[in-house]
Specification:
The structure holds two protein chains of two kinds.
Chain A (H helix, E strand, L loop, with lengths): L1 H9 L1 E3 L1 H23 L2 H7 L19 H18 L3 H17 L7 H13 L10 H5 L7 E3 H22 L2 H4 L5 H4 L16 H23 L4 H18 L5 H9 L5 H14 L17 H20 L11 H4 L14 E10 L6 E3 L8 H7 L3 H17 L6 E10 L5 E2 L31
Antiparallel strand pairs in A: 1-2, 3-4, 3-5, 5-6
Chain B lengths: L1 H21 L11 H36 L3 H18 L9 H4 L2 H5 L6 H10 L14 H11 L4 H10 L1 H35 L8 H23 L23 H17 L12 H10 L6 H17 L5 H33 L13
Helix pairs in contact in B: 2-3, 2-9, 3-7, 7-9, 8-9, 10-11, 10-14, 11-13, 13-14
The chains are: A alpha+beta, B mainly alpha.
Chain lengths: ~450, ~375
């Protein structure tokens, strides 16, 4: 076993795939940031709201007023640095920090895709992505390598495999497979698409989408790894993500995944891609084909591998943390985020807060839109940790308004995957007395239904 | 290049798939016809609504001119009745804040209350005002006219005296009725000259499609203006104590209930697709929910929502004609009505929106 491992660690591969991945990743990130900015989302999501929902333990991460734009500028510049392979180490670290900071500013905007980008950029800090066809390697021959350890490229493949496979596992539940929910709600709404629109309300089509979606997620990693199915797998990747792009408002993610899947191809494909790219810039890759192999020092190698092992151990176990909580995961959402549960739920809710003055007993309701944006209100109404954080904010707000030790209650209703709306949070619990923690939230009312499966 | 080949292959595959499915005989019997629903809304509810509303405003405009010219008690009474007629008809179109109405902020210029007496008085005495400015919204529309014709003095003789003594009052009154008229005409004309067609043909499913937009507008109206504005805010649901002088038509005093019940009927009528003239009923949200229900959704939301409208109606029927008096004497009945209205927010905004796959307020951001 140990010789197997040490043999694997010694294995090398061409540097071209990782270099191509670096360039495409940098470009994709640059486009994503420009797109985000051009839609006015920086102001809309991070500067305009009066209040931001924070992540547990990251309450100190807040937007920094107009300087938030600067954060996006730095993030964009660092993604250019990544694509060019210019001061790669600094670029990728800067990118990871700024991107992650942006995501941590408000969990209203949480998306698994953003989490994926954060993780990917984190591991890329430790990978020799600038060893080939980069400005760094061009300027400094000692940084130029045609071959790199194979595990570096494999780390990215492993992360992609986890994302797909876990997303597939999460779909193995009774709502998705037996009731075809939430696609039964979403697909018929796309009746106006050309050509396929008329099919999307047919029951068999909806079931086909559900089952194929689950099967796709579970099998695609293996089909991509196995050489003989790779091309077919890539075609499936393109079809799948183009379809999701057409059907759902998921922004840049489909393109990022399509581009990422290229990493599975043989080095010869990437070599051609880079040669082509080089000729566009009237240069060649010849200079980089120096036959040199990157060998890490033993300590460096051990540190990097140790770190990645811990990283992947966490990645493999963390998504299962919901098993430690009682109650239905989709209902309580305890352990829902950061576990590749993508497009699994149609959840809608409404939360009306009541403020009671402890001394006078005076009661009043809150107009949420005085404090939150429509987007924040929508996200808050279906997620208990949001409701709690907002309740504490309201307590502070009304205390400042002169209420004595205000108590905060919420009357809330949530509808999940087409079920009739039900009371969500115990309306008799003074939320001010509750603290957020990793412990189960006892003030969430029971789901009184069962969703079987993962 | 290999990739190029793959892409060509993919696209041709998609096209092939698309074409082959296209060749099947397509009978659209099991697809809900949103275009027909939009046409019903436009032709049988919205346009007739604006037509009667603008007609009532012409009458109001004339009555205000007559009264400004000859400020007698008789003319005052004629003006009041024209004002109440128009105000009542306004309740039937207030929820359709889409297209031109949205662009010119029709509702904000028509019915912001409580009105601001100081601003009105200073506008009148200085004669220096611009009714097109957002800051002047609190000094125009029905609530401002309410003040001028019902709240200026303690009895009718004193009110007419004010108009007789200072012609500036008449001038301002005419400016207000004429502005209401202009705004409404603008909206009706837009519907009649092209917007109807644009509205009906935008029958897609995107966030900016007519169904999604109007249902969101309807919901916003229901929550903010029907539930909160007419009942919740004056009953003190959102404040420490009841704010009885925030009722609609405060100076008229005994009209708040009729305005509310007209608005409630109109909201339910829209949900059920009832024609404006009462002659029948067409396709609307009730049928859409029935369609979803018959296609396998478990809840009969149409019945649930209509039942809840009935509960709101029966509770509100117990209220005094003057909500001001109701709040002062027995606010519990007001709160009772509020609760009934609130229960329907859950059914409409959570259950109906989910069933019809309508996103709340067009939240413009990426999803997962």
């Amino acid at each position: 076993m140990s010789t197997l491992i040490s043999n694997y660690i010694k294995k090398t591969t061409r540097a071209a795939p990782l270099a191509a991945f670096r360039i495409l990743f940098g470009l994709m990130m640059l486009i994503s940031i420009i797109r985000f900015w051009s839609y006015g989302w920086v102001a809309k999501l991070y500067i305009n709201p009066k209040f931001h929902f924070t992540y547990y333990g990251f309450e100190w991460v807040q937007p920094i007023g107009e300087f938030t734009y600067l954060l996006f500028v730095i993030c964009a510049l660092s993604s250019i640095g990544i694509a060019l392979g210019y001061k790669y180490k600094i670029s990728i670290i800067t990118f990871f920090l700024t991107f992650t900071y942006i995501e941590l500013m408000d969990k209203t905007t949480y998306l698994n895709h953003y989490y994926f980008i954060s993780l990917l950029s984190f591991i890329m800090i430790f990978l020799p992505a600038s060893a080939y066809f980069s400005l760094d390697a061009k300027n400094d021959p000692s940084k130029r390598f045609e071959y790199i350890p194979q595990w570096t490229t494999d780390a990215i493949k492993l992360l992609l495999c986890i994302v797909y496979f876990y997303a597939g596992l999460a779909k193995l539940n009774s709502d998705w497979l037996i009731h075809a929910m939430p696609l039964k709600i979403w697909l018929p709404g796309k009746y106006d698409l050309p050509i396929i629109g008329d099919l999307l309300h047919k029951t068999w089509v909806i079931y086909a989408f559900s089952w194929c979606g689950a099967l796709y997620d579970l099998t695609i990693p293996f089909l991509l790894i196995y050489k003989r199915t790779r091309l077919v797998a890539f075609i499936l990747v393109v079809i799948f993500h183009v379809l999701t792009r057409v059907l759902f408002p998921i922004g840049m993610f489909p393109y990022i995944m399509i581009v990422s899947a290229l990493i599975f191809f043989d080095a010869s494909v990437h070599q051609k891609l880079l040669n082509h790219l080089a000729s566009l810039f009237k240069t060649t890759t010849g200079k980089f084909n120096n036959g040199a192999t990157l060998h890490y020092k033993l300590l460096t190698s051990k540190l990097k591998l140790g770190l990645l092992s811990i990283f992947f151990f966490i990645q493999l176990t963390f998504p299962f943390r919901h098993l430690a909580y009682p109650g239905e995961l989709f209902w309580t959402e305890e352990g829902y985020r950061f576990s590749w549960r993508v497009m699994l739920m149609e959840k809608a809710g409404i939360a009306q807060f009541k403020i009671v003055d402890s001394q006078t007993g005076e009661t009043q309701h809150v107009d949420n839109l005085e404090h939150l944006t429509a987007f924040q209100e929508k996200q808050m109404a279906t997620q208990p940790d949001f409701i709690l954080e907002y309740a504490h904010y309201l307590k502070d707000y009304y205390a400042a308004q002169g209420k004595t030790d205000p108590k905060v209650y919420v009357e809330s209703y949530v509808a999940l995957n087409g079920r009739r709306s039900k009371p969500y949070i115990d309306p008799t619990v003074n939320l001010v007395k509750q603290r957020d923690s990793f412990k189960p939230k006892t003030w969430i009312l029971p789901f009184e239904d069962e969703i079987k499966g993962f | 290049m290999k990739l190029l080949k793959i892409c060509t292959l993919l696209i041709s595959g998609l096209v092939f798939w698309a074409c082959s499915s296209d060749e099947e005989p397509q009978v659209n019997t099991d697809n809900f016809d949103r275009g027909a629903m939009l046409a019903n809304w436009a032709d049988n509810i919205i346009i007739p609504g604006y037509t009667s509303y603008t007609a009532s405003l012409i009458t109001l405009d004339e009555a205000s001119a007559v009264f400004a010219e000859t400020s007698t008690i008789e003319n005052l009474e004629g003006l009041r009745s024209a004002w109440l007629d128009a105000y009542t008809l306004w309740q039937k179109v207030s929820m359709f804040e889409i297209g031109k109405a949205e662009a010119i902020a029709l509702r904000d210029f028509t019915n912001i209350y409580p009105t601001n007496v100081e601003t009105i008085e200073s506008n009148i005495s200085t004669g220096d005002y611009n009714l097109e400015l957002p800051s002047s919204r609190v000094a125009q529309g029905f609530p401002a006219i309410d003040y001028l014709i019902n709240g200026l003095a303690s009895d009718d003789a004193l009110i007419t005296d004010k108009f007789n003594q200072d012609p500036k009052y008449g001038t301002y009154l005419k400016a207000l009725t004429s502005r209401l008229n202009t705004l409404a005409q603008e909206v009706l004309q837009d519907w009649e000259t092209g917007y109807r067609e644009a509205f009906i043909s935008n029958d897609g499913s995107s966030a900016t499609s007519s169904v999604n937009k109007l249902v969101n507008d309807y919901m916003f109206y229901y929550e903010k203006f029907l539930r909160a504005g007419k009942i919740g805010i004056p009953a003190g649901v959102f404040s420490n104590t009841p704010l009885s002088d925030n009722v609609e038509a405060f100076y008229k005093n005994d009209a708040s209930k009729i305005l509310f019940s007209t608005a409630l009927d109109a909201a339910q009528g829209f949900f059920n697709g009832d024609f404006y003239d009462g002659s029948g009923s067409g396709i609307s949200l009730d049928d859409y929910l029935e369609f979803i229900h018959s296609n396998g959704s478990s809840e009969d939301l149409n019945t649930l929502i209509n039942n809840q409208f009935e509960i709101s109606r029966s509770r509100s029927q117990m209220l005094n004609d003057s909500f001001f008096l109701q709040i002062e004497n027995d606010n519990a009945l007001m709160l009772n009505t509020y609760d009934a209205l609130q229960a329907n927010v859950v059914l409409l905004k959570v259950d109906m929106f989910q069933a019809l796959n309508i996103k709340v307020d067009f939240v413009d951001a990426d999803g997962d």
